[in-house]
């Protein structure tokens, strides 16, 4: 088996930690960070982060 990618929740936490915004990061900033660090399409990030119930 190959190496598994981290879960989206772990990616979001990592993005928030690395963005280091004093007043928090916006969802758009988090999404842009995840897309810049991983080879993940925008629609996948939106579906997994913003539309999860």
Describe the protein in words.
With 53 residues, this protein is mainly α. Helix content is 58%, strand content 0%. It contains 3 helices and no strands. It has helices spanning 8-19, 27-37, 42-49. α1 (8-19) packs across α2 (27-37) and α2 crosses α3 (42-49). It starts with 7 loop residues before the first helix and ends with a helix.
Keywords summarizing the entry:
53 residues, mainly alpha, 3 helices
In short:
InterPro entries: WH-like_DNA-bd_sf, WH_DNA-bd_sf. This protein is 58% helix and 0% strand.
Radius of gyration, rounded?
A: 11 Å
How much strand? under 5%
Shape: globular
Distance between the termini: 30 Å
Biggest pleated sheet: none
The chain-level structural class is mainly alpha
Kindly report the average pLDDT value: 83
Percent of residues in helical segments? 55-70%
**Element-by-element helix/strand order:** HHH
Number of DSSP-assigned strands: 0
InterPro entries: WH-like_DNA-bd_sf, WH_DNA-bd_sf
Which helices and strands occur, and which strands form pairs?
Layout: H1 8-19, H2 27-37, H3 42-49
InterPro entries: WH-like_DNA-bd_sf, WH_DNA-bd_sf
């Amino acid at each position: 088996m190959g190496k598994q990618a981290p879960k989206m929740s772990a990616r979001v936490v990592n993005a928030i930690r690395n963005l280091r915004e004093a007043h928090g990061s916006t969802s758009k900033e988090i999404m842009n960070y995840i897309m810049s660090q991983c080879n993940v399409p925008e629609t996948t990030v939106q579906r997994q982060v913003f539309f999860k119930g």
